[in-house]
Amino acid sequence: MKSYNIAVIGGDGTGPEVTREAVKVLGAAASKFNFKLNYSDYDLGGERYLRTNEALPGSVVEELRSFPAILLGAIGHPDVKPGILEKGILLRLRFELEQYINLRPVKLYDERFCPLKDKGPKDIDFVVVRENNEGLYTGSGGFVFKGTPHEIAVQESINTRRGVERCLRYAFDYTRRRNKEKKLTLCGKTNVLTFAFDLWERAFHEVGAKDFPDIKRDYAHVDATTMWFVKNPEWFDVIVTDNMFGDIITDLGAMIQGGMGIAAGGNINPQGASMFEPIGGSAPKYTGLGVINPLAAICAGAMMLDFLGESTAAKAIEDCVIKVTREKVKSLAAGKMGFSTSQLGDLVASAI
Ligand code: IPM
Ligand code: MN
Questions:
Q1: pLDDT band at residue 123, thresholds of 50, 70 and 90?
Q2: Considering the domain boundaries, does residue 164 fall inside one?
Q3: CATH of the domain at 48
């Protein structure tokens, strides 16, 4: 029997509550489809930081590197200054484990949960491939004359040909494997960011023309992309974009697919340790109440199985989430689902 070692980082707030349900559903899928998942729990997050003054020891990064996959709940704590845990844990893992792709499917499972008028599941079904290691996220830049009236703050967007090209290649290949419209849209800002997106655009067409002639290439400015997410989401198949734009448009994507309760993502190193997470935060105000929606974490678990090669099991989980969402769930919002966090986990697990 195949077996996989999985690191689980429940993290902060409602993170442990939702990863628990994901593990429950993954267990049902493992026994049904005959594979084994061995979990190792890692205590990381705000509580540990407040206790030890260290967000993420280097030795833990090295341990995590040896897992094929990591399941993450949420990072973020009300008593820790913004930025410390995000940079110290989440971004550090993305960078050090070279998870250079952030994969975010935007798929509406039931039209009742779509805030857009006259749009349904057939209209909202696309995937965003966000570059996850470069752009404005590298921390490049600094202050000059800080605290004076002449203060200057520079935050640089780093775009390397290598980093951009490997992201584009992943996106083209993903579009081919997805086999829907075989259309890849580059989302950029070529009319203003004439260095960064010039590189992106040249690489996009060079790589596409040479190695992916079967994939249609399309382009949209980022501002127009947000407009079309609302007006014509059916135009998109796969979108590829840089780190910052990807961050922004995927929050909008999450809303049109029904909200943070359902939106999942993967931080992927195609050759290494990849990390799967519900994209909503730690939701401190709902912590410990058993009312948070675990479906996003469950969907992250399905993405993890797909990455591990267990695609039949991954598909089964997604199908069961769709069934339960359509037939049972009242709302995808915390506290309004009609079920507690663990009841919803039970429903999906028993559907499997
Ligand atoms: C996300 C989050 C993170 C990001 C934050 C928490 C650093 O918003 O995963 O989209 O900006 O990437
Ligand atoms: Mn974000």
A1: very high
A2: no
A3: 3.40.718.10
pLDDT in tens, 224-253: 999 999 999 999 999 999 999 999 999 999
Tell me, what's the pLDDT at 303? 98
Instruction: Give dist(CA 111, CA 5) in Å, integer.
Output: 37
The residue whose C-alpha atom lies closest to atom 6 belonging to ligand 1 is: 86
With CA atoms as reference, report the closest residue to 269 among 162, 173, 137, 167. 167
DSSP-derived 3-state class of residue 268: strand
| Number of domains the chain is built from | 1
DSSP string, 152-184: EEEEPPB--HHHHHHHHHHHHHHHHHH-SS-EE
Which candidate, 315, 308, 340, places its Cα nearest to that of 32?
315
Ion ligand 2: residue ranges with CB closer than 5 A: 247
CB of 247 within 6 A of ligand 1: the answer is yes
**Ligand 1 pocket, mutate which of 72, 77, 80, 86 (most atoms under 8 A from CB):** 86
Residue 180 lies in a domain: no
Question: In which domain, by residue range, is 349 found?
Answer: 1-114+258-352
**Residues of the chain with pLDDT > 70: what percent?**
100
Q: Which atom of ligand 1 is nearest to the CA of 281?
A: 6
